[in-house]
Amino acid sequence: MSSDPAKVPVSGPKDGDFRLSNANLHRLPGQIRRPAYDRSRVTPGIVHLGIGAFHRAHQAVVIDDLLAGGATDWGIVGASLRSPEAHDALAPQDGLYTLAVRSGAGTDHRIVGSVLATEVAKEKPGQLVARLANPATRIVSLTVTEKGYCHTPQTGDLDERHPDIVHDLRNPGTPRSAVGFLVAALARRRIAGAAPFTVLSCDNLSANGHTVGRIVTQFAALRSRNLAKWIEAEVAFPSTMVDRIVPETTEADRAAVSSALSMIDAWPVVTEPFTQWIVEDRFPAGRPDFAAAGVQLVSDVTPFEHMKLRLLNASHSALAYLGYLAGFETIAAAMTDQRFAAFALQVMQDAAPTLAMPEGTDLAAYSASLLQRFSNPALHHRTWQIAMDGSQKLPQRLLASMQDRLRLGLPIDTHALAVAGWMRYVTGTDEQGRAIDVRDPLAAKLKAIAESTGPVAERLAPALLEVEPIFGALGADPRLRSAVTGALTKLYALGARQAVQTFQAA
Question: What pTM value is reported for the model?
């Protein structure tokens, strides 16, 4: 089977049939929504780094709505830092793709037209730097995942030893990392006397705006102290919180969407009906009228970000690791087991006391909505997909709540079992002795630790807790070490299903 999404075979339309494109929009069935504006009149004002499904299910949809309202100078140019897959799929489609919103009631299909062009950074890095340096680019947004920031998650600082950072310092004109591209373009704009763009992170990491601002400034300082001072004084890095579940698009999804369209779409996006985007309103270079498309503009996104990370993302990760070990392929499948549904709710309830929310925020209602969303039978969000890059996600999703609960003198047993699930998962062997395809920047290191300790909780847990980039000083806390070791012991002895059941019984 070809790995090129532009060539993935799909059922429904046959080879030689029509492909989604500007020229073929009129051939779509009448019930399929399409861009309600003249795309030829739209000019780009946003460059997005990381043109994956997550971006195309939220920000690109918001911009599509605003373009329909007349905001013709806010089109998007999407850039992939490494993989050509998105470009190879979207370029023949003129950037068009289908948003398939699935629920128990069925699927709503919509063609999104806000992505005007795509680039592959590694193929023509100089071209992307020039695009970013163009004064017409007023916002540069990012969904490059936690690992794309080349930082240490526990501290939030730039990892100066990261291979991409080392390369970008030596080759400032042809960067590889998102940080390298941002600084290269900002340096060029500073020299030209042009105003800087706003950097808008939409990734699920703690204080994403502050984090990317710190990383960019730290990287710039390694190039020029004056450049770093200019960035610190002139560039805005608003924080954001995005809440929408976006599973990995499968070949079956492509086939179903192409059948509904009666033409081929090689790169559709599948998502849920719920969507929420909260953004700090700091855009010196200007912005679209986000509020007109339902975006909530605030002065401080921190409480909402913590709410999502510690309720949605934490319970999602808990279900992913323990659910995978228990044999559940998707989150919805895990939620059919009341033991796992109850455990997910307990993760949320235990995190709630660590949150300081604005008056009127109903955490119980939010948690109930999360359980309903997780149970969406039409959304096939794979546990394996959510389990990726756990070393980058644990600090924000689980460890932050554990640290705060310890500070408050509260037990951490619920989160300890979730962390133990991660530990069992990253050994690379499941409960039936089958290999797990662990995708993580620290996968090799974690596997080496597991091989040196063997499947013995009393050795494995302390060894993993000493991985400083993940656990930092928290890993040395005897209360955490005891709770996690005990949870891992139970997990090895009973298996994931029984461990979750006995946890509930307790």
Answer: 0.83
